[in-house]
Design goal:
Helix content is about 40%, strand content about 20%. It has helices at about 10-25, 50-55, 60-65, 70-90, 100-115, 135, 155-170, 195-205, 220-230, 245-250, 265, 310-325, 355-370, 385-400; strands spanning about 1-5, 30-35, 95-100, 120-125, 140-145, 185-190, 210-215, 235-240, 270-275, 280-285, 300, 305-310, 335-340, 375-380. The radius of gyration is 24 Å and the shape is elongated.
Amino acid sequence: MSVVIVGTLDTKGEEIDFARDVLEAQGVDVHLVDVGVMGPSDVAADTTAEAVAEAGGSTLEALQEAGDRGKAMEVMGDGAAAIVTEMYEDGVLDGILGLGGGGNTSIATGAMRALPVGVPKLMVSTMASGDTEPYVGTKDIAMMYSVADIEGLNQLSRTVISNGALAMVGMVSNEPDVEVEDKPTIALTMFGVTTPCVQTAREWLEERGYETIVFHATGTGGRAMENLIAQGVVDGVLDLTTTEWADEHVGGVLGAGPDRLDAAGAAGIPQVVSTGALDMVNFGPEDSVPEKFADRQFHVHNPQVTLMRTTPAENAEIGRIIAEKLNAATGPTTLALPLGGVSMLDAEGEEFFDSEADTALFDALRDNIDETVDLLEIEANINDDEFAVAVAERLHESLTDSA
């Protein structure tokens, strides 16, 4: 068992050395990667800061002379990522541990994000009680709040660091008892307001021998799915909930970036794409909604989530964007339109039902898709069983034809 610790030995040497002692006492081999640039340390590194800087495309001397902390962090982050990736590929990294403040958290978690999902990753950090999305991204990084700053050893820091190190021991010394079956894997996207559709489609596919992975379309979820598709983990995609494009286009808080809907097309794998929850843009609490949207239609989903109805003009542009994405696909692609509404709130009689806005979305999609994209139109709400089964069947047919 081998654990890599990524840390700034010039400022956190004593604390990192303590973590190494805890790990080694449990029979774990430890490899220290020094990402500090401020000066020498009394703690010896297995991979020196000089080596990290070179792996990042510079030299330690150049970084020290420049005195640009931001640039130094970028170089050391790139170097650490390259080094731990090589160690993993060489089979000498079973887990990765980091501990530190803002700077080392950025560098160490950057290295962690370079590793595949499933590799144990733990960051003991002063930043773990705030917004961790910039550090975690789309990877399975566990973050532990250090409570006090990681500066010196005391009864509190020893306890927290020990707990972090022992948690890493537990992860690397026990193989996950996960049943692995040789089944084709389907990625699905879901939101609360498209849950019935996804559940029905998922069950239909699993009954026919597929493994399914459902991604919550919250921005990070969409990016995570795109990454796994690019890595070849997924055989087909049932992208029912493309709501992230509403946030991306209008300015909500759950956008997934401009690359959303690219990976499946680039990989050439079968995909069925629908319009789930494109009737809404997501914001936080009511008082967080930008003033420019004051006259819009809202639905308070819960105290932390406020939904805003998309307009016909917004839906028309979203439809054009999605059509452009699907036209670029190199594999079998179907666009599925639920003509009875794109979410629970968009069903007839519900709060966000707006036939004009839906028509603008559907017309833009119809008008802009190429002949290479199959069009499936169903007179049902997206959450009706009729629609859910139809899209699952279409993906199954595409996968069967492609086999």
